[in-house]
């Protein structure tokens, strides 16, 4: 066994197959990545310049879009490069950086989604206190707390993972430096690391998802007390986008990190990991724009303003 300090490069195995498959995957990833960037950057611009969207909910949504754009950018460009080249290596430092930022952004998004659920709970269950309970300071605090927990989690995960010993050649059976895949490539005992990973990720998923469930339980009680069907429909419409986003994110997160089998099933995990690293960041802005009347109206105002500027 060689000392881990001698290992300077890892090999990202990715998806094995003929060159035609690699080209097809490159095109697929490229299309999804472009849509992700356009959608999330467009959401950031729209929620930043439209005066009708200067509310706590859209402040949190703007941060979610920023995270999704960065989240995909940490993974996708390197994956696309590997599809086009025979050299699938990644340096140890770049692998550590990719793991660090991926864990940071993923954890931050989980807590941010919980914060958005608290926002909906406050708006629907305590409308008279909404502006005091969701002031600018509190919104900034929610975002800061989300990033703080993200930094804590990624520091522990990356630190423990890269403290393991690795033997040449280090082949990671994944298309990016995911914690379970990198741990599995180690030639030292990873039992403690697997338990820490399970406890950490399980705690994050359970804690944030519990906040979301409790928030929506109170929302459901409030909705049932609304006499009119139109009123109930209006409340549900304000929450539907967030519920879909939560279901997509936490469904895949639980599959990958919330159960012991996720650590020992890298081949199955590769397909699921495409969903939460690329597909979900691409879908979130579409979900919030297509199912949200305020966002659609803001986009129309932005387009009309742009057309007017061009005509002038």
How would you describe this structure to a colleague?
This protein has 312 residues and is mainly α. Helices cover 76% and strands 3% of the residues. The chain has a three-stranded mixed sheet with strand order 2-1-3. Helix 8 (229-257) runs antiparallel to helix 9 (266-290). It is globular and about 65 Å long. Mean pLDDT is 87; it is low at 1-5.
Q: How many strands, which pairing sense, and closed or not: the largest β-sheet?
A: 3 strands, mixed
Global morphology: globular
Helix content: over 70%
Order of adjacent strands in the largest pleated sheet: 2-1-3
Outline the low-pLDDT stretches: 1-5
Count of individual helical segments: 10
**How big a fraction of the residues is strand?**
under 5%
Structural class of the secondary structure composition?
mainly alpha
Rg: 21 Å
Number of strands: 3
Average pLDDT number? 87
Distance between the termini: 71 Å
Q: How are helices and strands ordered from N to C?
A: EHHEHHHEHHHHH
């Amino acid at each position: 066994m060689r000392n881990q300090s001698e290992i300077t490069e890892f090999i990202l195995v990715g998806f094995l197959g003929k060159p035609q498959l690699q080209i097809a995957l490159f095109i697929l990833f490229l299309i999804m990545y472009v849509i992700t960037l356009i959608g999330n950057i467009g959401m950031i611009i729209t929620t930043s310049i439209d005066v009708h969207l200067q509310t706590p909910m859209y402040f949190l949504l703007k941060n979610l879009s920023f995270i999704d754009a960065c989240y995909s950018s940490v993974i996708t460009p390197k994956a696309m490069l590997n599809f086009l080249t025979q050299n699938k290596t990644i340096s140890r430092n770049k692998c550590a950086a990719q793991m660090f930022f991926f864990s940071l952004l993923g954890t931050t998004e989980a807590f941010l989604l919980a914060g958005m659920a608290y926002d909906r709970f406050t708006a629907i269950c305590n409308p008279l206190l909404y502006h005091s309970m969701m002031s600018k300071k509190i919104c900034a605090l929610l975002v800061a707390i989300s990033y703080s927990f993200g930094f804590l989690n990624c520091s522990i995960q990356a630190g423990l993972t890269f403290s393991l010993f690795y033997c040449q050649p280090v082949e990671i059976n994944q298309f990016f430096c995911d914690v379970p895949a990198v741990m599995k490539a180690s030639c030292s005992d990873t039992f403690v690391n697997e338990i820490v990973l399970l406890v950490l990720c399980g705690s994050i998923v359970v804690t944030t998802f519990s906040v979301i469930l409790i928030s929506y339980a109170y929302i459901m009680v409030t909705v049932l007390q609304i006499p009119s069907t139109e009123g109930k429909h209006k409340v549900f419409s304000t929450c539907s986008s967030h519920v879909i986003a939560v279901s997509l994110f936490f469904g895949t997160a639980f599959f990958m990190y919330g159960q012991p089998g996720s650590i020992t099933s890298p081949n199955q995990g590769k397909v699921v990991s495409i969903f939460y690293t690329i597909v979900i960041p691409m879908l979130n802005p579409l979900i919030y724009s297509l199912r949200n009347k305020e966002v659609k109206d803001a986009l129309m105002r932005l387009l009309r303003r742009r057309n007017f500027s061009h005509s002038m």
